[in-house]
Amino acid sequence: MPPPVKITKEDIVNVSLDIVRENGFSALNARNIAKKLSCSTQPIFTNFNSISEIKDEVIIKAQGIYSDYVDMESKKKIYPLYKSYGMAYINFARNEKELFRLIFMEQRDENKDIYVDYVSKVTPLIKNSLGISEENAKMFHTEMWACVHGIAVMQVTSFANIDEKTASMMLTDLYLGLKSRYTGDDRSVENRTTQFD
Question: What integer pLDDT is reported at residue 196 of this predicted model?
Fold first, then answer.
């Protein structure tokens, strides 16, 4: 009789990721993992103390996949660096709907603002490129990213199927409009909060 196949932590995390991709994060439980691995739940809890630990590992793995999208898009050099971040985000949403939901559409701990950390990384890029203040660079990115996130969510929810060419055009239009607003003659907060023409 052959020895039993040893199930590793990596096996469990990879199968868990597959479950999330196929059925969403809510489907991730010991029974579904065991079924996918064709084993009992015993090897799962030999490797992990709880399902919560597995979920944390899946989130880390999903974030790594998203990071790979960002890296690949920037290395292609099809778009300027800042735009490549937006296109990677949208393409990730299009191709990895459930992983996108997990990372960017789940309820967050109010005390942990992931977005603030991200803004601090891209603010210097915008500030240096456009020659604007750090405060304006942060606001520029917030406005830009609201549109990027909206396009991505439309992909995930099938609200609208926006192809890559159209998404690229939309991001360019928004970027140029914001650039004109932030570097033009009429930059006052007063006018920006009251005008709409």
Answer: 46
pLDDT value, residue 162? 93
Q: What's the number of domains the chain is made of?
A: 2
Three-class HEC string of the chain: CCCCCCCCHHHHHHHHHHHHHHHCHHHCCHHHHHHHHCCCCHHHHHHCCCHHHHHHHHHHHHHHHHHHHHHHHHHHCCCCHHHHHHHHHHHHHHHCHHHHHHHHHCCCCCCCCHHHHHHHHHHHHHHHHHCCCHHHHHHHHHHHHHHHHHHHHHHHCCCCCCCHHHHHHHHHHHHHHHHHHHHCCCCCHHHHHHCCC
* CATH number, domain with residue 1: 1.10.10.60
Q: Are residues 166 and 102 in the same domain?
A: yes
Containing structural domain, residue 145: 79-197
pLDDT, average across residues 41-67: 94
Average pLDDT for residues 48-74, to the nearest whole number?
95
